[in-house]
């Protein structure tokens, strides 16, 4: 627990602290790193977009993403995630500066800072370390004997689960939620924003902004367009760093298929 247990600040990550949808950018990076064809990424994105189009809640899309992790070596995913995060930082545009400034303000005054995200530990660990944050509440894919099972330990950290996270942190620390602050960019962050005394909407769509105005919440600018997702380079260095393993987001007919590395552009704007 940080220096001042009387206050806590809860930050959504994608679209709030960072400028892009990290889970999908990581998918693009992993596929390129392991030499997988662009069509695998396109297939998965079509699936997620189709779920959204027919009204599936974000929690369902989140579960579908993690179901495709089944069989992957958790250590390899973590290694690639660290390389991906370093590549994102190198773009110079990974963090959303207004939200990052707020996070530093909370840290400087000794507030307990918590990252609350639908993403998963492999992607959030390097970010939390870079930010100096040691409390991360996120979706937890189940790992058995070092491999992802495709199931989750608990619900996705989306919607009501985020308000539950606020409750758990504040009860454990003896903090009054009314003295806490939360930051989010999506309607699924509403339960978390409603659970604290001070809420900030980062950008947000018209519906979220309307709800914020009715509640007297504060606003931060929305994130700028993210740069193209960084992809690993061709050649021996990439092959040595990321030897071929179980294909990421593959189907049974694809397992064992060897393909060339692709440098095609990836569309990564959808949220999980």
From TrEMBL:
Spans of biased composition, class Low complexity? 238-251
Give the span(s) annotated as Disordered: 220-272
Top-level lineage group: Bacteria
What terms describe the molecular function in GO for this protein?
hydrolase activity; metal ion binding
Tell me if Magnesium is a UniProt keyword of this record. Answer: yes
Which keywords, in A-to-Z order, does the entry hold?
A: Hydrolase, Magnesium, Metal-binding
- Pfam families noted in UniProt: HAD
**UniProt keyword Hydrolase, yes or no:** yes
UniProt-listed InterPro entries:
HAD-like_SerB, HAD-like_sf, HAD_hydro_SerB1, HAD_sf
Gene3D superfamilies attached to this UniProt entry: HAD superfamily/HAD-like, SG protein - dephosphorylation function
Q: Where is the composition biased (Pro residues)?
A: 222-232
What does the similarity note say? Answer: Belongs to the HAD-like hydrolase superfamily. SerB family.
Name-wise, this protein is: HAD-IB family hydrolase
Q: Which organism is it from?
A: Streptomyces cinereoruber
